[in-house]
Design brief:
Blueprint lengths: L5 H19 L7 E10 L9 H9 L5 E2 L20 E9 L7 H10 L6 H12 L7 E4 L9 E2 L2 E9 L5 E7 L8 E7 L9
Parallel strand pairs: 2-7, 4-8
Antiparallel strand pairs: 1-3, 3-8, 4-6, 5-6, 6-7
Helix pairs in contact: 2-4
């Protein structure tokens, strides 16, 4: 008999609950649409333990706003660590005009497309390596399971980056409990599809 710890049991329960809500229509994926897919290659010298500190040191001056709670310590326990040198297909999903989406609905999209939950490190790498292809005038979120996200001012927080039409950039945190709308989008790090006949 396999024994699982309390955290794993809670996560399994959350996943079952979310899938149940998708099947019953309480959570619908029809609110979302694919804006584009971009290629993001993680730098060879990427180090999960120091990624966010390095990013801040190199790039903070390029940002209008930067939340100081986005640190390696706060995001140390992401569900999936990025792999140095690996290329990901990052699917960017938008939310249809007039719709709003809860964080649970956003996480359902990640599960549907088999995306990795890479947290703030995913935002940093996507912006650093391919910011010119991120949607403008939208907040691009990179989710993780609620239990993996850090607390800030008493709430779990979701990281994301916003590039304005004037190219001003903000790297900040939103409340997990806050709904997203058509001004937001999801960064979903996925495996690069294997060409047909190459399996």
């Amino acid at each position: 008999m396999r024994i699982i710890d309390a955290d794993a049991a809670k996560l399994a329960g959350l996943q079952i609950d979310t899938l149940s809500k998708v099947r019953t229509g309480q959570i619908t994926l029809e609110k979302f649409y694919l804006i584009k897919t971009i290629s993001v290659t993680v730098p060879q010298d990427y180090d999960h333990a120091t990624c966010l500190a390095s990013f801040r040191e190199k790039d903070q001056k390029k940002f209008y706003g930067y939340n100081y709670n986005i640190t390696d310590v706060n995001f140390a326990k992401v569900t999936t660590q990025l792999v140095p040198g690996k290329t990901y297909a990052v699917k960017i999903f938008g939310i249809h005009a007039g719709e709003t989406a809860t964080s649970e609905e956003c996480l359902a999209v990640y599960r549907e497309v088999k995306a990795f939950l890479v947290g703030a490190q995913g935002v940093a790498v996507a912006w650093e390596t391919n910011h010119q292809n991120l949607p403008k005038d939208r907040w691009c979120a990179s989710f993780d399971e609620k239990e993996k996200l850090p607390f800030s001012i008493g709430f779990r927080r979701v990281p994301g980056v916003h590039t304005g039409l004037d190219d001003g950039v903000d790297f900040h945190l939103r409340f997990f409990e806050s709904a997203l709308d058509d001004r937001d989008c999801l960064l979903c790090f996925c495996e690069v599809p294997v060409p047909t006949g190459m399996e």
